[in-house]
Design goal:
mainly alpha, AhpD-like, 2 domains, 82% helix, 110 residues, globular
Length: 110
C-alpha cells in the first residue's frame, strides 16, 4: 500500500484531474520493465536527489520505506550522490532525508 500523498498534491489533482491522469499514465509506463518496486524506489530517489527536488526526495523516502527499503539503503543512495553533486548539496539532501524520516516516524507512531 502506498503512503497517502500530501494534501497539496491531493488538492492539485482534484482541481486538475486530467493532469493527474496523464501523470499516472507516465508513471505506469515507467514502471514497465524488469526492475522490481524496491529498486525502482531507489532509482527514483537518486533521480530526485540529483535533480535537487526536495519534495520528490521526501515523497520517494516515504514510498521507499513502504516498499521495504532500509535506512541503510536510503543512506547509500544519498552517499553515492556526493561524488557527483558535491558535499554541500549532499549535506542539504541529508537534511531533507532526515526531516522526511522524522515526519514518517511521527506519522507511524500515531
Amino acid at each position: 500500500m502506498q503512503p497517502k500523498p500530501p494534501i497539496s498534491y491531493r488538492q492539485f489533482t482534484q482541481r486538475h484531474p486530467r493532469i493527474a491522469e496523464g501523470w499516472e499514465t507516465i508513471a505506469a509506463a515507467g514502471r514497465e520493465g524488469p526492475l522490481d518496486e524496491k529498486t525502482i524506489r531507489l532509482v527514483k530517489l537518486g533521480l530526485a536527489i540529483g535533480a535537487g527536488r526536495e519534495g520528490a526526495v521526501r515523497a520517494n523516502i516515504r514510498k521507499a520505506l513502504v516498499a521495504g527499503k532500509s535506512l541503510d539503503e536510503i543512506d547509500q543512495v544519498m552517499a553515492l550522490t556526493a561524488g557527483t553533486l558535491g558535499l554541500s548539496e549532499t549535506v542539504a539532501v541529508y537534511t531533507w532525508i532526515r526531516k522526511a524520516l522524522t515526519k514518517e516516524k511521527k506519522r507511524t507512531e500515531r
